Design the sequence.
């Protein structure tokens, strides 16, 4: 029997990414609780003496959500996706900054380019995270990890956290263990000590529903999943998922780091924290909708595609799902155009019922270079039109 040589896989994730980018231009806020979110309102104002006046979280009125927060704000319990008003109750004095996706995309490109000069095998996983295959690199693991962190810092002024492990599953878990500015290296031998005590939901693929179901069986940690009776898991989760649970809880994962692929369509969807209504939750929905389109535009730009067909997926509170799509005369890839087309689709679905999920997809893809598509900034108030 031949066994594959052990791999060295890294997961790199930027620390408090959007907030950290903001602190580069507002260094006077460093060390303070800062929250990014609430759309594009609440721009800082430069006073006559050259100092800047910032909004505070307590000034916020509306139904928007927190995009991200600095670690100082997290100490008050303020995290991504929390309602801004709830966040304001926890940290009224926190500084509030509007989102600026163009900057985040620019820094995203910068840190990825810096990493690619050291390790060519990069799998792009979104605006602030990547996987790397370090297996063939001559440097020892810690030296290489430090080198990657230094390159990111040098190119952007920002810190990141890196997990290095024999596979993607463990690397992703590890990048989170010593945040911020972490470098965590684990081997299979470390799994019982470092991974088993963690909550089961730390595994990418054990979502809130599966975690709740496990908890109902008295299974809270990864280790408890590993030691659970396979028959019990199979009974509650089906054969495939139970088998997958067994493998991941022992730290096994064979997925390769994939540097490129040719997609048919690219989509983003999000399940709301609570069911939302088109009228009563218009502001929150509008923001979520815009963010979905912005992230989708970001995915398209990163993968260098534009597409002619824009699809909308909507799941109601009762789990009925409807989809609509629209095919445009020319391929698009920018957030505003996607938002407009998806908004058109939205007009063609009934909106009386509360919704639990919203998804947007762009298909009929062509490489961006052939599309002649133009990138324009996103508009934020289009939900109103629907
Ligand atoms: N983001 C978002 N909506 C969310 C979660 C995140 O728009 N519900 C954005 C803001 C984050 C960025 O994506 O800055 C990256 O997400 P992460 O989960 O990596 O969060 P951070 O980078 O902010 O923090 P951490 O240091 O925990 O990675
Ligand atoms: Mg991050």
Sequence:
């Amino acid at each position: 029997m031949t066994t594959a040589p052990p791999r060295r896989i890294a997961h790199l994730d930027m620390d408090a990414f959007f907030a950290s980018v903001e602190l580069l231009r507002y260094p006077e806020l460093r060390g303070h609780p800062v929250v990014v979110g609430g759309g594009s309102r609440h721009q800082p104002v430069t006073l006559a003496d050259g100092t800047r006046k910032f909004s505070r979280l307590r000034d916020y009125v509306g139904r928007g959500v927190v995009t991200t927060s600095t670690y100082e704000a997290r100490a008050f319990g303020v995290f991504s996706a929390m309602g801004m008003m709830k966040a304001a109750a926890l940290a009224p004095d926190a500084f509030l900054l509007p989102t600026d996706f163009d900057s985040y995309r620019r820094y995203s490109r910068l840190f990825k380019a810096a990493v690619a000069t050291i390790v060519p095998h990069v799998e792009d996983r979104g605006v602030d995270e990547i996987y790397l295959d370090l297996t063939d690199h001559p440097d020892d693991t810690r030296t290489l990890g430090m080198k990657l962190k230094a390159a990111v810092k040098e190119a952007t002024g920002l810190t990141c956290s890196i997990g290095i492990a024999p596979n993607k599953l463990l690397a992703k878990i590890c990048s989170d263990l010593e945040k911020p500015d972490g470098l965590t290296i684990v081997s299979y031998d470390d799994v019982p000590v470092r991974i088993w005590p963690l909550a089961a939901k730390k595994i990418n693929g054990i979502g809130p529903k599966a975690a709740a179901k496990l908890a109902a069986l008295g299974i809270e940690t990864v280790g408890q999943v590993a030691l659970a009776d396979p028959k019990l898991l199979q009974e509650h989760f089906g054969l495939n998922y139970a088998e997958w649970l067994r493998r991941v809880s022992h730290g096994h994962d064979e997925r390769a780091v994939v540097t490129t692929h040719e997609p048919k369509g690219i989509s983003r969807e999000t399940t709301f924290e609570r069911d939302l209504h088109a009228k009563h939750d218009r502001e929150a929905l509008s923001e979520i909708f815009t963010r979905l389109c912005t992230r989708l535009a970001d995915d398209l730009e990163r993968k260098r595609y534009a597409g002619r067909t824009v699809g909308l997926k909507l799941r109601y509170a009762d789990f009925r799902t409807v989809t609509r799509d629209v095919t445009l005369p020319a391929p698009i890839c920018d957030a505003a155009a996607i938002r407009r087309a998806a908004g058109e689709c939205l007009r063609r679905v009934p909106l009386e019922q509360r919704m639990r999920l919203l998804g947007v997809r762009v298909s009929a893809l062509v490489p961006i270079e052939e599309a002649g598509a133009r990138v324009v900034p996103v508009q934020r108030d289009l939900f109103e039109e629907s």
In short: The two ends are 61 Å apart (CA to CA). Residues 13-18, 67-68, 80-81, 127-128, 179-180, 291 surround 2'-deoxycytidine-5'-triphosphate (ligand 1) (CB under 6 Å). Residues 124 and 296 are 14 Å apart (CA to CA). Confidence is low (pLDDT under 50) at residues 373-386.
